[in-house]
């Protein structure tokens, strides 16, 4: 109880939650309402500075930047969630089997993960997106594949630590099936490490999606993407700096909030911090 009260006063936790909840509210709202049509062009109103009509100003086509930022949250969260889902599911399966079974299966799986980790993340993402093609789903698949090795290694380490514990040996003696031991007995005991890794993966995926969209290989126009907006705005950095501030600030604030939350989760779920 004291530990929970201590973390409720943690400034990182409070800021992280406020940021994430705030963006979630914006995302949910964007499904039903935006101040202006996100793709409606209004050339006479192009590059207008922020005002009561256009809170973040307008872009080079006269589109409302605030409305496009709102819609862009859908892209950011969709890619983040799909990446975490793919990376976590396959990472747990590969790491769990490797750690529990061991032997040559462990060697094969871990060498495969080493091979994936040997490539710089953004280079591998560029290659995969070039193969799959641009778009939200394909971008998430590419980033999910990149996320698998880190989660697989964390899962494997946890399974190796727990596979010889007494509760596992007892379960084997009474005839519990291996898959049940793995996913009903061992996995819950290492879920805290996986949750923290998934939170970091979520933030990393958002950054990577923005980078790919900036390079023109992520989400394609006219769908709003913060990375694409950042690329389009750089030509107007001097004359219309608000165009850059909106997507750049959104990326920075959301990723910072996710990292602050992940750091707090790591401390909260670390048994040594409860001593």
What does this protein look like?
The protein has 275 residues and is an all-alpha fold. The protein has eleven helices and no strands. The two termini are 13 Å apart. Keywords: Cell membrane, Membrane, Transmembrane, Transmembrane helix, Transport. It comes from Lysinibacillus xylanilyticus. It holds the Pfam family BPD_transp_1.
Helix fraction by DSSP (H/I, runs of at least 4): over 70%
Mean pLDDT reading: 85
Uncertain runs are none
**Proportion of residues in extended strands:** under 5%
Largest sheet: none
Distance between the termini: 13 Å
Query: What overall form do the CA principal axes indicate?
Result: elongated
- Radius of gyration, whole Å: 22 Å
Number of strands: 0
What oligomeric state best describes the polypeptide chains here? Answer: single chain
Structural class, from secondary structure content?
Answer: mainly alpha
Order of helices and strands: HHHHHHHHHHH
The tally of helices reads: 11
Pfam family, one: BPD_transp_1
Organism: Lysinibacillus xylanilyticus
Transmembrane segments: 12-33, 76-101, 113-130, 136-154, 194-217, 242-262
Domain ABC transmembrane type-1: 73-262
